[in-house]
Specification:
single chain, alpha/beta, globular, 9 strands, nine-stranded mixed beta sheet
Length: 321
């Protein structure tokens, strides 16, 4: 993967830089317990963290799946950043005791629940636009997002089980297992370039240090062969790859949790706040392009990665052409 040469921009770059900062709408965090809603409303199939704008309106939805043994609440800073740019983020909590196959099925149930249950947990006059929905995840959750988008919600069938149609897919340092020979089911990596049968545009954000050991003792959290690089290698265009060169696998978590995680996971020396802003900005720019039709922000980051607050190297766009 070669280094991207930056191209000059023909307009004010500050318009794009704003995606790396908090948006113009305050975000509200709502915790939803499993099955906690009334009989007249579809109960949630999993505990949820819902982050939504508070200003009345209709907003696109982003499903976000957390990493192994992590919690949605540990991503608050990142999820609030995204939501403040006028997105509703729904982040279910999955048990670390279940297999990933069951996690994918639960993710499918959460997706089905959005149609009947999401409205009931949002602020007054805030509505979800379920014609504009994206799916994403970090670490193991990144693989769950890919699995769901590829139709593995029901492992006994090759067809998707969710009635809602995803418009975009994002993997944030996704991981498929401990090694190529030890993929967790469903085994979606085939080690064949462009083999994913996905029908939606994809963005893969990798962490440059996530394939390294911490203190030469603990194994890498995202080993070669099952990490971001291979996920991107198997994506069909249109797809985008962004590598946060100087950061580690858990550096997008909130500061206190990221500090604890750095004891066992290779961590970057730079500001974790800047890492979260960079990832949040890429997510927002990608969603704006694929859900909102505003392509300038994403194109600008691809042409001039230095707009981001951290080093992105490489940045690789792959189109259908």
């Amino acid at each position: 993967m070669g280094k991207v040469l930056e191209e000059p921009l023909l307009h004010d770059a500050s318009l794009t830089s704003h995606v790396f900062e908090e948006g113009d709408v305050a975000a509200k965090i709502t915790k939803v317990k499993k099955g906690s809603l009334s009989d007249s409303v579809s109960p949630s199939p999993s505990p949820l963290l819902v982050v939504s704008p508070i200003i009345p309106g209709k907003y696109p939805v982003l499903l976000f799946f957390h990493g192994f043994i992590l919690k949605p609440s540990w991503y608050k800073s990142l999820l609030q950043h995204i939501s403040s740019h006028r997105y509703i983020v729904v982040a279910p909590q999955f048990s670390s005791l279940i297999s990933q196959s069951k996690e994918v099925k639960k993710a499918a149930k959460v997706t089905e629940w959005l149609s009947n249950g999401l409205n009931s947990v949002l602020p007054e006059k805030v509505e979800p636009d379920l014609f504009k929905i994206a799916v994403s995840g970090h670490s193991r959750g990144g693989k769950t997002a890919f699995s769901l988008a590829l139709g593995y919600g029901n492992l006994s069938s090759s067809t998707p089980t969710t009635p809602l149609k995803f418009q975009a897919l994002l993997g944030i340092d996704p991981v498929a297992g401990s090694s190529p020979s030890s993929q967790s089911a469903p085994k979606i990596l085939q080690y064949i370039p462009r083999s994913f049968d996905q029908s939606v545009p994809v963005a893969v954000i990798g962490a440059g240090l996530s394939n390294q050991r911490a203190y030469y003792i603990f194994p890498p959290f995202a080993p070669n062969g099952v990490n971001h690089s291979e996920f991107f290698n198997e994506c069909k265009p249109p797809c985008y790859y962004f590598l946060a060169k100087d950061y580690g696998h858990t550096d997008i978590l909130d500061d206190k949790i990221a500090a604890i995680a750095s004891l066992i996971s290779k961590s970057g020396k730079g500001s974790k706040d800047l890492m979260r802003k960079a990832v949040g900005g890429i997510v927002v720019a990608f969603l704006e392009a694929k859900l909102g039709g505003q392509v300038d922000f994403l194109n600008d980051i691809v042409k001039a990665p230095s707009l981001a607050p951290i080093t992105l190297d490489p940045v690789i766009p792959m189109s259908n052409n």
